[in-house]
Amino acid sequence: MGTCDSVDAKNRRYWRLVLETTNHSNFLQTAARVLLVIMLLLIPYGTLTPDPGTPSGSAPFMHLGGMAWVALLACMSFETNKNRVWAVLFVFAYGSLMELFQHYLGYRHGSWADVGINGIGCLLGVGGFAIINHARRFAIVYPGSGK
Which class for 73: exposed (0-12), middle (13-18), buried (19 or more C-beta within 10 A)? Predict the structure, then answer.
């Protein structure tokens, strides 16, 4: 039984070393940053141009999914939790600013309900990041445990 434990400990140390020395996380972080910038540039186009006639029931889901996706990208773009919090707060403030601009446009409608749904979307994005990050760390520390 002692031999199995020592092999398992060596295996965990090996995979921790692999996690610390690989650059795949740098690639994912860079890709997330590029996608985040693209999304932040596209949001004004999607929110401030005349409404293309989306079905009335789908608008909350579009807000929820869109903000969750952007918040997830914001979390993936930074390494420290402090920076992630500031990035998600920026995303929420940016979405709220778009709602304010919509309020003053004659052809769009901004509302407090949309701001609230944007906030819930941001929380879903942060929750999704937490789940993905935990699963990734668990898979690397304990490879093959999901088989």
Answer: buried
Count of beta carbons in the 10 Å neighbourhood of residue 89: 13
pTM of the model: 0.74
Strands (E), 79-128: none
If 0-12 CB within 10 Å is exposed, 13-18 middle and 19+ buried, where does residue 91 land? buried
Q: Is residue 21 part of a domain?
A: no
pLDDT in tens, 87-96: 999 999 999 9
Amino acid at 28: L
Mutual orientation of helices 59-76 and 81-104 as an angle, nearest 10°? Answer: 150
Name the one residue in this structure whose structure tokens are 């540039």.
41
Structural domain range at position 91: 32-137
**How many CB atoms within 10 Å of residue 103?**
13
In a domain, 16, yes or no: no
